[in-house]
Amino acid sequence: MPDSVKKITSKEFISMKARGEKIAMLTAYDYLTATIFDQAGLDSILVGDSASNVMQGNANTIPITVDDMIVYARSVARACKHSLVICDMPFGSYQISKTDAMQNAVRIMKETGADALKIEGGEEYIDTISCIIRAGIPVCGHLGLTPQSVKAFGGFGVRAKETAEAEKLIRDVKLLENAGCFAIVIEKVPAELAARAAAAVKVPIIGIGAGNDVDGQVLVSQDMLGYDPSFHPKFVRAYANLHDIITKAVQDYQSDVKAKAFPNESESY
Ligand code: KIV
User: Fold this and answer.
1) Residue 27 Cα, ligand 1 centroid: separation in angstroms?
2) Which of these, 99, 105, 134, lies nearest to 119 by C-alpha position?
3) Distance from the alpha carbon of residue 99 to the mean position of ligand 1, in angstroms
4) pTM over 0.90
């Protein structure tokens, strides 16, 4: 990557929306993956609490801790000279009190080098989000299917299909914009509602399972790289099949070891 490489800032996200440039975001949780994404010129990397699922094998994002997120986000931030790095505040790190939320937000920013935080929820957390933004920390909102509330929702189904929840989502995007959020992720809602949300605010709406009439897209990288053939929700497009590529590489390596074909002379000292 050239020395002149430009870091994307949270302010730049708003300019990108203003000039109609779509924003591409993927999750990453480790240094080498983040290095590849950064050098590929990806706009933004989300160190999502989806690490709970794809890195730790949990069924949801409830168990992951601030300490865990700090390890992942620090590794990603170290790699990124271009991509804007956003770190999720995990479940329990901002729900207890504003003071606790501020302490966790400051700790994540100090110890990781991330550029911004992401917080799930609208009106319920607006005071906390405002407080964190006032402290000089850029915050990305997250509405619609907010996976930290999976137990309250009763599953990972499409959200805001009913009028009351849809209208609350539109109110929440405006509240988050007024509070100073620089972007808002909207997950798994009808495309028409996400388009309405994008038209209602100047900050970019980053969709996941929210159709194409929004300002950008985010996917979990393991999903779009095809690590898990048993997980293919409608909103994911697999751009690679790393499951099969890695399986073949491992099997070829094992065959070579057993046949004494690896290492050869040029691979030995
Ligand atoms: O944690 C995560 O990866 C996320 C995305 C699904 C938006 O929040």
Assistant:
1) 7
2) 105
3) 25
4) yes
